[in-house]
Amino acid sequence: MKKTYLNSNHLGDGLKLMEFGDGGATLTALAILLAKDNGRGLGDLHVAMPDTPLEHWEKDEYNLKRVRTPHAHLVGSWAGDRNTIAGDHGDNLPGRDENLYYIAQREYEDISAPMRELVNCDRYLKQRFADQFKWAESLKEKDTD
Question: Nearest CA to 67 among 87, 44, 89?
């Protein structure tokens, strides 16, 4: 079982279902994590690990080049897995005195920051979510004060 999660606040969305469920950065990050066959079409997120050599199609007339990022392995990493949107008012897990929302914050890895970097690999998405990501960074700074 993978022990990773997304924090919608860290992606610039609200924490409640109806706050992040409107098609913002959180749902985009989720789509990237669930993408089983990414990289095969023009509308995909074209990323690769930093040491990946150029493919023949990266040199053609379309001039599409994959962005090299150490987070490329996250694309599709949740494909086929059982996933849950856990809320702070959810039921406690069997045999535990806490629900999944609080357990994940303490025991799982928050991959929201690497997902922000992945989303920013696409010029359109980077522009679209720039304000959201600035807000998320400002929250992060407040948490460390």
Answer: 44
